[in-house]
Design goal:
- The protein has 322 residues and is of the alpha/beta class.
- It is 39% helix and 18% strand.
- It binds uridine-5'-diphosphate-4-deoxy-4-fluoro-alpha-D-galactose.
- Uridine-5'-diphosphate-4-deoxy-4-fluoro-alpha-D-galactose binds next to helix 6 and strand 9.
Length: 322
Protein backbone atom coordinates (compact mmCIF):
# COMPACT_ATOMS: atom_id res chain seq x y z
CA UNK A 1 0.00 0.00 0.00
CA UNK A 2 1.41 3.38 -0.96
CA UNK A 3 1.33 6.22 1.51
CA UNK A 4 -0.77 8.50 -0.71
CA UNK A 5 -3.03 10.73 1.31
CA UNK A 6 -6.73 11.49 0.83
CA UNK A 7 -7.52 14.97 2.16
CA UNK A 8 -11.18 15.92 2.40
CA UNK A 9 -11.94 19.63 2.63
CA UNK A 10 -8.48 20.46 1.32
CA UNK A 11 -9.73 23.70 -0.26
CA UNK A 12 -10.82 25.14 3.10
CA UNK A 13 -8.89 27.20 5.64
CA UNK A 14 -7.21 24.55 7.79
CA UNK A 15 -7.27 21.92 5.04
CA UNK A 16 -5.40 24.06 2.51
CA UNK A 17 -2.69 24.91 5.03
CA UNK A 18 -2.29 21.20 5.70
CA UNK A 19 -2.12 20.37 1.98
CA UNK A 20 0.76 22.83 1.49
CA UNK A 21 2.60 21.44 4.52
CA UNK A 22 2.08 17.83 3.41
CA UNK A 23 3.13 18.58 -0.17
CA UNK A 24 6.25 20.37 1.05
CA UNK A 25 7.00 17.36 3.27
CA UNK A 26 6.93 15.14 0.17
CA UNK A 27 3.52 13.48 0.61
CA UNK A 28 1.40 12.54 -2.41
CA UNK A 29 -1.94 14.27 -1.79
CA UNK A 30 -5.36 13.87 -3.41
CA UNK A 31 -8.03 16.36 -2.33
CA UNK A 32 -11.76 15.64 -2.22
CA UNK A 33 -13.82 18.78 -1.74
CA UNK A 34 -17.39 19.75 -2.69
CA UNK A 35 -16.39 23.43 -3.20
CA UNK A 36 -19.14 24.59 -0.88
CA UNK A 37 -16.75 26.77 1.12
CA UNK A 38 -16.75 29.71 -1.29
CA UNK A 39 -13.54 30.78 -2.98
CA UNK A 40 -11.15 27.81 -3.12
CA UNK A 41 -7.68 28.20 -1.68
CA UNK A 42 -4.81 27.92 -4.21
CA UNK A 43 -3.09 24.54 -3.87
CA UNK A 44 0.38 23.45 -4.99
CA UNK A 45 0.85 22.26 -8.58
CA UNK A 46 0.62 18.51 -8.80
CA UNK A 47 -2.07 18.10 -6.16
CA UNK A 48 -5.10 16.44 -7.73
CA UNK A 49 -8.39 18.02 -6.67
CA UNK A 50 -11.57 16.00 -7.12
CA UNK A 51 -14.84 17.86 -6.79
CA UNK A 52 -17.34 15.69 -4.99
CA UNK A 53 -19.32 14.81 -1.93
CA UNK A 54 -17.65 12.96 0.95
CA UNK A 55 -20.76 10.79 1.18
CA UNK A 56 -20.38 9.50 -2.39
CA UNK A 57 -19.13 6.05 -1.44
CA UNK A 58 -18.44 4.81 -4.99
CA UNK A 59 -16.37 7.90 -5.77
CA UNK A 60 -14.39 7.54 -2.54
CA UNK A 61 -13.61 3.86 -3.02
CA UNK A 62 -12.56 4.38 -6.64
CA UNK A 63 -10.28 7.24 -5.59
CA UNK A 64 -8.68 5.30 -2.77
CA UNK A 65 -8.12 2.24 -4.99
CA UNK A 66 -7.01 4.04 -8.16
CA UNK A 67 -4.67 6.40 -6.35
CA UNK A 68 -3.53 3.77 -3.82
CA UNK A 69 -4.25 5.97 -0.79
CA UNK A 70 -3.33 4.52 2.59
CA UNK A 71 -4.30 7.36 4.93
CA UNK A 72 -6.98 10.01 5.14
CA UNK A 73 -7.10 13.43 6.75
CA UNK A 74 -10.75 14.41 7.07
CA UNK A 75 -11.30 18.18 7.32
CA UNK A 76 -14.55 18.53 5.39
CA UNK A 77 -17.44 19.47 7.60
CA UNK A 78 -19.92 22.07 8.76
CA UNK A 79 -18.35 24.33 11.37
CA UNK A 80 -20.70 27.10 12.47
CA UNK A 81 -22.03 26.82 15.98
CA UNK A 82 -25.02 29.16 15.49
CA UNK A 83 -26.09 27.51 12.25
CA UNK A 84 -25.89 24.11 13.94
CA UNK A 85 -28.45 25.23 16.52
CA UNK A 86 -30.85 26.40 13.80
CA UNK A 87 -30.23 23.49 11.42
CA UNK A 88 -29.04 20.43 13.38
CA UNK A 89 -30.14 18.15 10.57
CA UNK A 90 -27.54 19.65 8.28
CA UNK A 91 -24.82 19.11 10.91
CA UNK A 92 -25.64 15.49 11.72
CA UNK A 93 -26.04 14.77 8.02
CA UNK A 94 -22.67 16.25 6.97
CA UNK A 95 -20.56 15.58 10.02
CA UNK A 96 -21.92 12.15 10.95
CA UNK A 97 -24.01 10.45 8.22
CA UNK A 98 -21.88 11.45 5.23
CA UNK A 99 -18.74 11.14 7.32
CA UNK A 100 -19.65 7.51 8.02
CA UNK A 101 -20.15 6.75 4.33
CA UNK A 102 -16.76 8.30 3.64
CA UNK A 103 -15.09 6.36 6.44
CA UNK A 104 -16.59 2.99 5.52
CA UNK A 105 -15.79 3.41 1.84
CA UNK A 106 -12.23 4.53 2.59
CA UNK A 107 -11.58 1.66 5.02
CA UNK A 108 -13.04 -0.96 2.68
CA UNK A 109 -10.82 0.34 -0.12
CA UNK A 110 -7.61 0.19 1.89
CA UNK A 111 -7.21 3.26 4.12
CA UNK A 112 -5.85 2.24 7.52
CA UNK A 113 -4.98 5.56 9.22
CA UNK A 114 -7.38 8.46 9.74
CA UNK A 115 -6.88 11.94 11.17
CA UNK A 116 -10.17 13.71 11.85
CA UNK A 117 -10.67 17.45 12.54
CA UNK A 118 -12.36 17.72 15.88
CA UNK A 119 -12.94 20.70 18.11
CA UNK A 120 -12.85 22.15 21.60
CA UNK A 121 -16.63 22.42 21.20
CA UNK A 122 -16.82 18.76 22.33
CA UNK A 123 -16.19 20.00 25.89
CA UNK A 124 -19.15 22.39 26.05
CA UNK A 125 -18.71 24.59 29.10
CA UNK A 126 -15.57 23.18 30.72
CA UNK A 127 -15.24 22.55 34.43
CA UNK A 128 -11.44 22.86 34.47
CA UNK A 129 -9.33 25.32 32.43
CA UNK A 130 -6.80 24.54 30.90
CA UNK A 131 -8.83 21.61 29.60
CA UNK A 132 -7.27 18.12 29.41
CA UNK A 133 -8.64 15.56 26.90
CA UNK A 134 -10.10 13.56 29.79
CA UNK A 135 -12.48 16.41 30.75
CA UNK A 136 -16.17 15.75 30.64
CA UNK A 137 -17.45 16.02 27.07
CA UNK A 138 -20.85 17.69 27.19
CA UNK A 139 -21.24 19.64 23.95
CA UNK A 140 -23.69 22.53 24.24
CA UNK A 141 -24.57 22.70 20.53
CA UNK A 142 -25.21 20.27 17.68
CA UNK A 143 -21.90 21.21 16.04
CA UNK A 144 -19.94 19.91 19.03
CA UNK A 145 -22.28 16.94 19.41
CA UNK A 146 -21.77 15.94 15.77
CA UNK A 147 -17.97 16.08 16.08
CA UNK A 148 -18.05 14.05 19.29
CA UNK A 149 -20.33 11.46 17.68
CA UNK A 150 -17.80 10.95 14.90
CA UNK A 151 -14.95 10.64 17.38
CA UNK A 152 -16.91 7.85 19.04
CA UNK A 153 -17.31 6.06 15.73
CA UNK A 154 -13.54 6.23 15.22
CA UNK A 155 -12.94 4.90 18.72
CA UNK A 156 -15.29 1.95 18.21
CA UNK A 157 -13.73 1.20 14.80
CA UNK A 158 -10.33 1.33 16.44
CA UNK A 159 -11.37 -1.23 19.04
CA UNK A 160 -13.21 -3.54 16.64
CA UNK A 161 -11.33 -3.22 13.36
CA UNK A 162 -7.92 -1.98 14.41
CA UNK A 163 -8.38 1.41 12.70
CA UNK A 164 -5.59 3.77 13.67
CA UNK A 165 -7.07 7.20 14.26
CA UNK A 166 -6.30 10.61 15.69
CA UNK A 167 -8.81 13.37 16.44
CA UNK A 168 -7.05 16.69 16.95
CA UNK A 169 -9.41 18.97 18.85
CA UNK A 170 -8.71 22.48 17.63
CA UNK A 171 -9.09 25.41 19.93
CA UNK A 172 -9.28 28.69 17.98
CA UNK A 173 -7.61 28.17 14.60
CA UNK A 174 -6.24 31.52 13.44
CA UNK A 175 -3.47 33.27 11.48
CA UNK A 176 -2.50 32.32 7.94
CA UNK A 177 0.50 31.07 6.00
CA UNK A 178 3.30 33.67 6.38
CA UNK A 179 3.66 33.84 2.58
CA UNK A 180 0.19 35.43 2.50
CA UNK A 181 -1.30 33.26 -0.27
CA UNK A 182 -3.90 31.53 1.92
CA UNK A 183 -6.55 33.57 3.66
CA UNK A 184 -9.08 32.83 6.40
CA UNK A 185 -12.45 33.56 4.82
CA UNK A 186 -15.80 32.13 5.77
CA UNK A 187 -19.20 33.07 4.44
CA UNK A 188 -20.64 34.55 6.58
CA UNK A 189 -17.56 35.49 8.58
CA UNK A 190 -18.11 34.96 12.30
CA UNK A 191 -14.52 34.55 13.54
CA UNK A 192 -13.00 37.20 15.71
CA UNK A 193 -9.64 37.89 14.09
CA UNK A 194 -10.85 38.42 10.49
CA UNK A 195 -13.65 40.62 11.84
CA UNK A 196 -11.23 42.67 13.96
CA UNK A 197 -8.88 43.20 11.01
CA UNK A 198 -11.68 44.13 8.62
CA UNK A 199 -13.14 46.59 11.15
CA UNK A 200 -9.74 48.25 11.56
CA UNK A 201 -9.29 48.46 7.78
CA UNK A 202 -12.73 50.04 7.35
CA UNK A 203 -14.05 47.06 5.39
CA UNK A 204 -16.73 46.27 7.95
CA UNK A 205 -18.54 48.18 10.64
CA UNK A 206 -17.11 48.44 14.16
CA UNK A 207 -16.47 45.12 15.86
CA UNK A 208 -19.20 44.11 18.28
CA UNK A 209 -17.62 42.75 21.46
CA UNK A 210 -19.98 40.04 22.64
CA UNK A 211 -20.10 40.57 26.40
CA UNK A 212 -17.75 42.38 28.77
CA UNK A 213 -19.10 41.02 32.03
CA UNK A 214 -17.62 37.51 31.97
CA UNK A 215 -15.63 36.27 34.97
CA UNK A 216 -12.31 36.90 33.18
CA UNK A 217 -9.58 39.48 33.93
CA UNK A 218 -11.02 42.16 31.60
CA UNK A 219 -14.57 40.82 31.36
CA UNK A 220 -14.31 39.65 27.74
CA UNK A 221 -14.13 36.00 26.65
CA UNK A 222 -10.80 34.21 26.71
CA UNK A 223 -9.80 31.82 23.92
CA UNK A 224 -6.71 29.84 22.96
CA UNK A 225 -5.70 31.07 19.49
CA UNK A 226 -3.49 28.60 17.67
CA UNK A 227 -1.76 29.32 14.36
CA UNK A 228 -3.12 27.33 11.44
CA UNK A 229 0.44 26.41 10.38
CA UNK A 230 0.98 24.88 13.82
CA UNK A 231 -2.23 22.90 13.30
CA UNK A 232 -0.98 21.69 9.91
CA UNK A 233 2.29 20.50 11.49
CA UNK A 234 0.39 18.65 14.21
CA UNK A 235 -1.57 16.72 11.57
CA UNK A 236 1.66 15.65 9.88
CA UNK A 237 3.06 14.55 13.22
CA UNK A 238 -0.17 12.65 13.98
CA UNK A 239 0.01 10.80 10.65
CA UNK A 240 3.56 9.82 11.41
CA UNK A 241 2.64 8.69 14.95
CA UNK A 242 -0.17 6.55 13.50
CA UNK A 243 2.37 4.46 11.61
CA UNK A 244 3.62 3.38 15.05
CA UNK A 245 0.30 2.93 16.89
CA UNK A 246 -2.93 4.47 18.15
CA UNK A 247 -3.16 8.19 18.95
CA UNK A 248 -6.79 9.07 19.82
CA UNK A 249 -8.03 12.53 20.79
CA UNK A 250 -5.55 15.38 21.13
CA UNK A 251 -6.02 18.98 22.18
CA UNK A 252 -4.27 21.46 19.91
CA UNK A 253 -3.75 24.83 21.52
CA UNK A 254 -1.06 26.88 23.21
CA UNK A 255 -2.14 26.57 26.83
CA UNK A 256 -2.38 30.37 26.98
CA UNK A 257 -5.58 32.33 26.68
CA UNK A 258 -6.16 35.76 25.13
CA UNK A 259 -9.23 37.91 25.74
CA UNK A 260 -11.21 39.67 23.03
CA UNK A 261 -9.74 42.96 24.29
CA UNK A 262 -6.21 41.56 24.03
CA UNK A 263 -6.89 40.50 20.43
CA UNK A 264 -8.16 43.99 19.64
CA UNK A 265 -5.04 45.54 21.19
CA UNK A 266 -2.71 43.16 19.33
CA UNK A 267 -4.44 44.00 16.04
CA UNK A 268 -4.19 47.73 16.73
CA UNK A 269 -0.43 47.35 17.31
CA UNK A 270 0.06 45.20 14.19
CA UNK A 271 -1.85 47.63 11.97
CA UNK A 272 -0.70 50.81 13.67
CA UNK A 273 -4.27 52.02 13.85
CA UNK A 274 -7.23 51.82 16.20
CA UNK A 275 -9.80 49.05 15.94
CA UNK A 276 -13.30 50.53 16.18
CA UNK A 277 -15.43 48.42 18.52
CA UNK A 278 -18.59 48.62 20.55
CA UNK A 279 -20.02 46.69 23.43
CA UNK A 280 -22.73 44.17 22.52
CA UNK A 281 -24.72 41.58 24.45
CA UNK A 282 -23.26 38.15 25.10
CA UNK A 283 -23.53 35.67 22.23
CA UNK A 284 -25.50 32.55 23.06
CA UNK A 285 -23.40 29.53 23.88
CA UNK A 286 -20.06 31.34 24.43
CA UNK A 287 -18.19 29.88 27.43
CA UNK A 288 -16.15 32.47 29.39
CA UNK A 289 -12.81 30.75 28.81
CA UNK A 290 -11.55 27.90 26.60
CA UNK A 291 -7.86 27.14 26.94
CA UNK A 292 -6.17 23.86 25.99
CA UNK A 293 -4.04 21.64 28.10
CA UNK A 294 -2.03 20.44 25.11
CA UNK A 295 0.47 18.34 27.02
CA UNK A 296 -0.75 15.08 25.47
CA UNK A 297 0.08 16.34 21.95
CA UNK A 298 3.51 17.31 23.29
CA UNK A 299 4.16 13.93 24.85
CA UNK A 300 2.78 11.81 22.01
CA UNK A 301 3.75 13.82 18.93
CA UNK A 302 6.55 16.02 20.19
CA UNK A 303 4.33 18.87 19.02
CA UNK A 304 3.98 22.33 20.43
CA UNK A 305 2.70 25.57 18.98
CA UNK A 306 5.67 27.49 17.57
CA UNK A 307 4.06 30.29 15.59
CA UNK A 308 1.10 31.05 17.85
CA UNK A 309 2.10 34.25 19.64
CA UNK A 310 -0.86 36.57 19.26
CA UNK A 311 1.25 39.22 17.49
CA UNK A 312 2.45 36.69 14.90
CA UNK A 313 -1.05 35.31 14.34
CA UNK A 314 -2.50 38.78 13.82
CA UNK A 315 0.39 39.89 11.61
CA UNK A 316 0.12 36.77 9.39
CA UNK A 317 -3.67 37.13 9.19
CA UNK A 318 -3.28 40.78 8.22
CA UNK A 319 -0.75 40.01 5.48
CA UNK A 320 -3.06 37.44 3.94
CA UNK A 321 -5.95 39.93 3.83
CA UNK A 322 -3.97 42.31 1.61
N1 LIG B 1 -16.39 37.59 19.27
C1 LIG B 1 -16.81 38.90 19.44
N2 LIG B 1 -17.31 39.56 18.36
C2 LIG B 1 -17.42 39.00 17.13
C3 LIG B 1 -16.98 37.66 16.95
C4 LIG B 1 -16.47 36.98 18.05
O1 LIG B 1 -16.75 39.43 20.55
O2 LIG B 1 -17.90 39.65 16.20
C5 LIG B 1 -15.86 36.87 20.41
C6 LIG B 1 -16.67 35.63 20.74
O3 LIG B 1 -17.72 35.97 21.62
C7 LIG B 1 -15.62 34.73 21.39
C8 LIG B 1 -14.32 35.13 20.68
O4 LIG B 1 -14.58 36.38 20.09
O5 LIG B 1 -15.50 35.04 22.73
C9 LIG B 1 -13.91 34.14 19.61
O6 LIG B 1 -15.02 33.92 18.76
P1 LIG B 1 -14.92 33.10 17.40
O7 LIG B 1 -16.28 33.12 16.79
O8 LIG B 1 -13.77 33.59 16.59
O9 LIG B 1 -14.53 31.64 17.87
P2 LIG B 1 -15.30 30.67 18.91
O10 LIG B 1 -14.43 30.62 20.13
O11 LIG B 1 -16.71 31.00 19.08
O12 LIG B 1 -15.29 29.33 18.06
C10 LIG B 1 -14.19 28.52 17.89
C11 LIG B 1 -14.31 27.80 16.54
C12 LIG B 1 -15.52 26.93 16.52
C13 LIG B 1 -15.47 26.01 17.70
C14 LIG B 1 -15.28 26.75 18.98
C15 LIG B 1 -15.05 25.82 20.12
O13 LIG B 1 -14.39 28.74 15.52
O14 LIG B 1 -15.54 26.19 15.34
O15 LIG B 1 -14.14 27.58 18.92
O16 LIG B 1 -15.88 26.19 21.15
F1 LIG B 1 -16.62 25.33 17.80
Amino acid sequence: MSDGLLVTGGLGFVGSHFVWAAHEAGARVVVLDDRSGGEAAPLPDGVRVVTGDIGAAALVSALVRDERLGAMVHFAGKIQVGESVRAPRLYFDHNVARGLRLLDAALDAGVSRVVFSSTAAVYGTPEIVPIPESSVREPVNPYGASKLAFERVLSAYGDAYGLRWAAPRYFNAAGAHPRGHLVERHEPETHLIPLVLDAALGRRPALRVFGDDYPTPDGTCVRDYVHVCDLADAHLAALDALTRGAVGALNLGTGRGASVREVIDAAARALGRAVPFERAPRRDGDPAALVADASRAGALLGWRARRSELEVIVEDARRSRG
